[in-house]
Design a protein that fits this description.
By secondary structure, the chain is an alpha+beta fold. The chain has two domains: 329 residues, Outer membrane efflux proteins (OEP) (Up-down Bundle), CATH 1.20.1600; 68 residues. Helices cover 69% and strands 10% of the residues. It has eleven helices and six strands. A four-stranded antiparallel sheet has the order 2-3-5-6, with no helix packed on it. Strands 1-4 form a two-stranded parallel ribbon. It is elongated and about 135 Å long.
Length: 425
């Protein structure tokens, strides 16, 4: 019973699975809109923007209205610090508050850092999408070549088996072909499973269900353009680095934090205005001159005398953080330079390997062409042609691998230089 239940569940899941054939550009656009990690980063950015509105609050006028109406027996005393009144209205806002001003500047810089985090996350998602897409595409091409190789080996196996039966070949030769066929079939099955997993991983990155599959759609695509020289790539990497800009933003925020702590000894000036409408019955018996409408407009000035040690401690912590950030900034610049130079060297190595693989493939194809022409003249056998075609399929697989390494190396250079998204769109 459990077996049938499991089978039913798998069948139901497969029925709801969907295959999405997409080009590279479509896949990247979808990922930048629907990727869950990127959506979480955007939510963090929204929270950072909301923190700016919170930090602005002391400098925004606020108005409170209500009533302090009360029945008075005897002298009218205060209710929550105000005389009994029919209607009360009060407003206040900060006019001069250096700690809050620096806090607002710090929060704005923190929000800029959150925006840089989102941009950095979008670069990571674009790179992850592109690498998975190219990997799936390369696997599909290799799987197609392996399938042709398996079919060729089956034909060779049948031909060799016939020759063994006729006594023209030893049985050992048939076993050799059987091993080659089993090895090729195993590679094809393993590659098919890896391809399925890669397509599922790509679907998850694009925000689809893990049961879905994203299949790369073949298209004419120009090679990704990279900087002409290693020096140009390094300079571009420094210019576009999100990591450097984020550390610089954090340095700015820590600078405002130091000023915020140091400003604790400065005076604070607030604007205060209030209005109250009094009831005659509460005041006429006690005051010779009574006015029902009462308005006040003024400022509240607070001058710190003893601020304690917290402000100095906070300033000292922030200055220590600044020293750490400056050290990290130097380390980050060195890392970016080394990583960019390494990526550029890896690209050159991959391009050289691709050229060798292309020449090797051309040689194998020429061999097949030569044997085909010799077959018509009776100077070559069908088995020689089948063997040559098997070699050609292996060379195609090697060429696809080399081509994949070049594309990945180009993507890595673009990622290091901060121009990946522009190249993919």
């Amino acid at each position: 019973m459990l077996k049938y239940t499991l089978l039913l569940c798998l069948t139901t899941a497969a029925a709801f699975a969907e295959v999405h054939p997409l080009t590279l550009r479509q896949a990247v656009e979808t990922a930048l809109k629907e990727n869950p990690d990127l959506m979480l980063a955007r939510l963090d950015e929204q929270k950072a923007q909301a923190a700016i509105r919170i930090a602005k609050d002391p400098f925004v006028p606020k108005v409170y209205a209500g009533s302090g109406l009360a029945k008075v027996w005897g002298y009218p005393t205060s209710i929550e610090g105000a005389a009994p009144s029919i209607i009360q209205a009060r407003t206040d806002m900060s006019l001069f508050n250096r700690p809050k001003s620096y806090e607002l500047a710090r929060v704005r810089e923190t929000a800029r850092g959150a925006e840089l985090d989102t941009q950095s996350k979008s670069d990571q998602i674009a790179y992850q999408t592109a690498t998975l897409f190219l990997e799936a595409q390369q696997m599909a091409r290799s799987a197609q070549s392996l399938e042709l190789e398996v079919e060729s080996l089956k034909r060779v196996s049948a031909a060799v088996g016939l020759q063994v039966e006729e006594g023209r070949k030893l049985p050992l030769e048939n076993k050799r072909i059987a091993v080659d066929l089993a090895r090729a079939s195993q590679r094809f099955e393993g590659l098919s499973g890896d391809l399925d997993y890669t397509e599922a991983s790509l679907a998850v990155v694009l925000g689809f269900s893990a049961a879905d599959r994203v299949q790369p759609r073949e298209e004419e695509r120009a090679a990704f353009e990279v900087p002409a020289t290693q020096e140009a790539a390094t300079e571009l990497a420094f210019e576009n680095s999100r990591d450097i800009r984020k550390l610089e933003s954090q340095l700015q925020a820590k600078g405002f934090e130091v000023k915020e702590a140091q400003a604790a000894r400065l005076p604070v000036i607030d604007l205060v205005a209030q209005y109250a409408l009094f009831a005659k019955s509460n005041y006429q018996a006690y005051f010779a001159h009574f006015q029902r409408n009462n308005t006040e407009l003024g400022v509240s000035i607070q001058i710190p005398i003893l601020t304690g040690s917290a402000s100095k401690g906070l300033a000292s912590q922030a200055q220590t953080d600044i020293l750490e950030l400056r050290t990290q900034l130097g380390q980050t610049r060195n890392r970016i330079q080394l990583d960019t130079e390494k990526s550029y060297r890896e690209l050159k190595k991959a391009a050289s390997a691709q050229e060798v693989a292309r020449l090797d493939l051309d040689y194998a194809r020429d061999q097949v062409s030569l044997l085909l022409s010799q077959l018509g003249e009776g100077r070559a056998t069908q088995q020689q042609i089948d063997d040559a075609r098997l070699v050609e399929q292996e060379k195609w697989i090697a060429f696809y691998d080399a081509q994949h390494l070049v594309e990945n190396a180009r993507l890595d250079v673009l990622r290091q230089t901060g121009t990946l998204q522009a190249a993919l769109r």
